[in-house]
Every structure is written in C-alpha cells, then in structure tokens.
Amino acid sequence: MHPHALALAAAFSVPQIAYLWLTGESSTALDLWTSIGRGVCMSYTQVAWWAWMVLIVFSLERWTYITVWLNSASFMKLCKKLRFALPAHEVLAHSLVCNKLIQLSSCLFVHFAIQNFSFPSDKPYTVFTAVQLLLIGQFLNWAVYGTIGKKGVYYGCRLGADVPWVEGCPFTCCPHPQYVGAMLSLLGLGMLTITPFHSANGMWLMMSSQWVFYVLTMYVEEKL
Fold first, then answer.
1. If you ran DSSP here, which 8-state letter would residue 163 be given?
2. Is the pTM of the predicted complex or chain greater than 0.90?
3. Burial level of 118, CB count in 10 A (0-12/13-18/19+)?
4. Chain centroid to CA 28
5. What is residue 122's predicted lDDT score, i.e. its pLDDT?
6. Distance between CA atoms of 53 and 49, rounded to whole angstroms?
7. Mean of the pLDDT values across residues 40-46?
8. Residue 150: in which H helix or E strand, if any?
9. How confident is the model at residue 86 (pLDDT cuts 50, 70, 90)?
10. Radius of gyration of the chain (CA)
11. What confidence score (pLDDT) does residue 164 get?
C-alpha cells in the first residue's frame, strides 16, 4: 500500500481510536453505524416520494458525466452547433453548476419544508465523525482540482483540452480520489442532516444509491 493511502487511512482511524478511548463512547459509535446500516438496508417500497426526488436530482449529475464520457465527440459537435462561446469542458462545467443549485434546492426543501432540520448537537461522536469525513472528503476533492484543474475535472481529456497527467498525490491516496472524496462528504453531510424521520423515509437508502452511481461512474471512466 502506498504511504499516501496509509496516511489517508490513519487520518480517519487514529482520531477515531483516540476519541473513543478518551470518551468511552464505543456504544454510541456502534449505535450510529448500526442506524445508518438499517437505513441503507430498508426496502425501496418504504421510500417517500421526496426522497426519490432527491435521488433523481442528484443522479442527473452522474448520468451527465457518464453520457458525456461515452459520447464526447457528439457533445463537442453539439456545443459547436449551438455556437457556445465556451470550450466544451466549460459548457459541461456550467451545466453541472446549475445542477448543483438544483441539488441544493432539493436538500433545502427536504430539510425545511418536509421536516425541520435538526443539528445533532447532543451527539458529539456523530458531529466528530461527520467533520472528519467532510475534511478528508474535501481534501481529496480540492486536491484533484489543484492537480488537474477544471479542464481535468470536467473531462477536458475527452473534450479536446490539454490536461496534465498526474501520478502523485491525491491519486496515490486511493482510486478515483475525487469520487471517493464526494462519497465521504455525502456520508458526513448525511450524519449531520438526516434525522430519524428522514432515515425512516428512505434518505440513507437514497444516499447509498447515489454511492452506487459514483461507483458506476468510476467503472465507466476506467473501463469504457
């Protein structure tokens, strides 16, 4: 295993061990991970309509990435035909920023219109773990941006842009570090925002389904 991968694993496991040893909250940790596991393993028939809505909105981004990857030449032709003033990778970037705004709107709707948001301030282990996951996830995310830039992130290599080939960190930390970072960040955000009500209506199941889409994107980029 590469030293960077070991460092990444240690960044999560060492603080976890230290926290649990100092606080003795091992049962709390078990309860948290068990509740998430139950939420992930529930039946799709129990999922509320608004949880399906969140999954659909979030999955649009993944399907856009996959479609452009598999049809990059057609996407570039479409951009030229529509006379966009921006390069194809910039067009993709702008469209996905719009999708992010829709994602944010769906989350605000679920956490305020459907059920009031409740920060788990009475669950220090949950907050501690969520912050860990968010920090590690965003480190991986921004490290990818820092090394290959917007052109690399938004498929410039498939859309006619010059993108540097990078073999060092963060690509030595784990395969597909940006997607792993996004999955860790989603898990951290879920810990902070998914209440028992949201969990009972399928939000953890929808989030795990989104992880499947990330894995599918990894497969497409690596194999197709």
1. -
2. yes
3. middle
4. 25
5. 83
6. 6
7. 91
8. helix 124-153
9. confident
10. 19
11. 83
Hey, what amino acid is at 179?
Y
Report how far residue 3's alpha carbon sits from residue 25's, in angstroms, rounded to the nearest whole number.
Answer: 30
Torsion angle (degrees, nearest 10) of CA 59, 155, 5, 17: -30
Which DSSP helix (H) or strand (E) runs through 133?
Answer: helix 124-153
Per-residue tokens: 221: 């980029």
Residue type, 222: E
pLDDT tens-place string over residues 117-174: 777 878 899 999 999 999 999 999 999 999 998 889 999 899 888 888 888 889 999 9
Q: What percent of the chain has pLDDT over 90?
A: 71
Amino acid at site 110: V
Taken in order 165, 169, 174, 177, the sign of the CA dihedral is negative
**In this predicted structure, what is the pLDDT of residue 120?**
81
Place of tokens 């039946």: 43
The Cβ-side half-sphere exposure at 7, using a 13 Å CA radius, reads 10
d(CA 138, CA 148): 15
Tokens of 20: 């649990």
Q: Are 134 and 185 in contact (CB under 8 A)?
A: yes
Which phi and psi angles does 21 have, rounded to 5°? -70, -40
pLDDT for residue 56 is more than 90: yes
